[in-house]
Amino acid sequence: MIKIRSFRNSDLPAMVDVWLEHWASVGPVPRVNLARLEQAIVSRTFFDPHWLLVAEAETQPECQGKQSLLGWCHVIPGTAAEDIDHENGEVRPALAGAGGDPALAQDSSFATLAALCARPAQAAEVAPALVAAAMDHVRSAGCRSLLAGLIRDDVGGYAGLEPFGHGIGVLNHDQVSVTTLKQMGFEPIHALTRLVASLQCYRPPVSREALQFRRTASTQSQSIIPTTRRLAAGLSHLDIEEFRLVDRSGQVLAEMAFWFSDPEAEVLCPSTAILDLRQSQARGELSSAESYLIAATMQSLVERNVMSVETAIDSEKKTLVQQLQRICFDATDEGQVWGLVL
User: Fold this and answer.
1) Model pTM?
2) InterPro entries given for it (predicted)?
3) DSSP string across 146-194
4) Structurally, what CATH architecture does the domain formed by 196-333 represent?
5) Domain ranges in the chain?
6) pLDDT for the residue numbered 109
7) What CATH class has 2-192?
8) What is the pLDDT of residue 89?
């Protein structure tokens, strides 16, 4: 028999074991330990144990241990009052993008299934039980929709945690999650692609425009501190830097943000950086100045022992994907956000 209950602090070591077992059955073992998982989830100021569900085998107390915890899932409710950016009046969804649906992005009656994992031997039984319990939690909280998968997470706390990275929804090769979501009636609503650039021996592509920018402009950078409470809490494990391409007259030609691991709160691997393409994502393309700025910045990151840069792109943005591939990004993973109206 399986028992579903809310999280307890003593569950963390077993949760790490389940995470590693789950993803080892999917692909490479993620570089995740107790400290990283705790920092990503439990240490957040907005963490509520009511929304972190664990599945355990109903055994005698003397037989309980790490192996009795069979799986877990984490649900994050929708927009909260503190997520409003008072500088521009924007309402920030609890999970960035809200599945790409503008209506959901303004709707506090949805929740997001941020994580789902189970021990492979029991996954066929445990994963559906966890999702069913999550659906009951969401309904009882008054939410009308449940999304599954993180998109370019900036307020959930998972940004950089392997194998989620920047956030491309539910990975297509995570067959346990995909099969379970289909079984429970979810439908795919938003496809995403992970692109990664290796910086070992990185050389930016040469073009006439790139040579012109190199002669007439320079790059500058500054640290960025998030202005909203939830954004600051969700990205507290990252150092955010904004890089600018500035011409000789002082005009800013391009701006781009990179996220780096904070050595005091390590969730993202220190040798990896995340490229935040928020504005370019909306346009669906890069300007020539932005392409040059990204390539020039990546070339300089090797000096900081950053060996790879990743980003998450809407799969339908073909032009943007091709532009990134021209500056040596490769598509490495695909995922989807799934949705269900309750």
Assistant:
1) 0.89
2) Acyl_CoA_acyltransferase
3) EEES-BS-SSSS-TT-TTTTT-BSEETT-HHHHHHHHHTT-EEEEEEEE
4) 3-Layer(aba) Sandwich (3.40)
5) 2-192, 196-333
6) 79
7) alpha beta
8) 36
What is d(CA 17, CA 119) in angstroms, rounded to the nearest whole number? 9
Q: Residue 149 phi/psi, 5° resolution? A: 115, 140
Distances (CA, A) of 211 to 216, 231, 267, 277: 9, 37, 37, 23
- Per the CB < 8 A criterion, the answer to whether 84 and 91 are in contact is yes
Is it the case that residue 309 has pLDDT exceeding 80?
yes
Q: How far is 136 from 143, CA to CA, in rounded Å?
A: 10
Q: Is 168 strand, coil or helix?
A: strand
pLDDT-derived band at 66, boundaries 50, 70, 90: low
**Could you say which DSSP state residue 151 is in?**
B
Residue carrying the six token digits 């929708």: 78
Which of 96, 80, 91 lies closest to 282, judged by CA? 96
**DSSP 8-class letter at 174:** -
Q: How confident is the model at residue 162 (pLDDT cuts 50, 70, 90)?
A: very high
Helices 318-326 and 288-301 pack at an angle, to 10 degrees, of 50
Q: How far apart are CA 100 and CA 243, in angstroms?
A: 26
Largest CA distance in the chain: 74
